[in-house]
Amino acid sequence: MTKNYETFASVYDAIMDDSLYDAWTDFSLRHFPKKAKGTQLLELACGTGIQSVRFAQAGFAVTGLDLSQEMLDIAAKRAASAKVAIDFVAGNMLDLSGVGSFDLVTCYSDSLCYLADEVEMGDTFAQVYAHLNEGGTFIFDVHSVHQTDEVFPGYSYHENADDFAMVWDTYEDEAPHSVVHELTFFIQDEDGRFTRYDEIHEERTYDLLTYDILLEQAGFKNVKIYADFEDKEPMETSKRWFFVGRK
What we know:
Layout lengths: L2 H13 L2 H14 L8 E5 L5 H8 L3 E6 L2 H14 L4 E4 L11 E6 L10 H13 L1 E12 L1 H7 L4 E5 L3 E9 L5 E11 L5 E11 L3 H11 L2 E7 L12 E7 L1
Parallel strand pairs: 1-2, 1-4, 2-3, 4-5
Antiparallel strand pairs: 5-11, 6-7, 7-8, 8-9, 10-11
Helix pairs in contact: 2-3, 5-7
Keywords: Methyltransferase, Transferase
GO molecular function: methyltransferase activity
Protein name: Class I SAM-dependent DNA methyltransferase
């Protein structure tokens, strides 16, 4: 693993609000079946493992899946430091063959919004359904259309620290309910020099009915929808939608 990527990931972790992981954990524990501890949990798009460690500390047998082996290497170090056993797997949520079956599956931090279109969203839901045990629970969050259409366009965030700086600008994209995040990082190396890195992140969401239909087509029944980490129905100004589906 390159030193740069480790630094890169640590920058991501540094700018994330730590309390969000507590909120994702609390929401999950409220909506998992009772006596869920010790059960098999798959966390999709686990990244550097912060949420996976939270779940392991809560008593679940956790598998974390992510596209990035570099991120998973960092996640494994994080789990070792926390003294929890987590199985980290490099893979794509569009194809979960080979990862086994689970009682619980989660996908947080609007990771599903990075899928290209409705077809990929539907395929992912079908994969999750196929790898859930009977009676299993699938929980995920996505951006609301209010977030992509009203809040994000024109959003700008700048951060300066001793060893890195970041500029984050968000613009409306061409597809409905889609945005482009342009991120520029300046990261200090061991020689004290700053190197520039540029990233483009494209995200897309859909209206509630679309998610409902895709989940139903995948086989999920009686899907419950909530908003902004609370056990309340979405409102027009809700920013983050949460879905709880059972097999």
